[in-house]
Give the backbone structure.
Amino acid sequence: MLRKLEAALADCAARQITVTYAQMAALIGLEGPGRIGKLTDALETLMEQDAQIRQPLRAALVVGRSAGGLPARGFFLKANELGLGIGQAPQAFHASQVSGVFAMAANPAPDT
């Protein structure tokens, strides 16, 4: 599932769009009860990976349907847990992560 999620997030980044949790669950083929919980678990795994290599959080591209364009509260709690300190307003932190992911997609690092 992580590979599908990474591919879907890469596509969103390349297209410079965000998607809702339900949309992402459908994109990667998660169905039935508990699908959003499974998705958020996988997103948190990616957040850990991204934080470890100090890159913008790809999970920022997944937002709540009725959250005003922001991810669910768990995104911010996990970011704090990872030591990313959201000292700024959640909206500003989220916007910086989204713009970072979009910038990385637009300017990929050369292969080494």
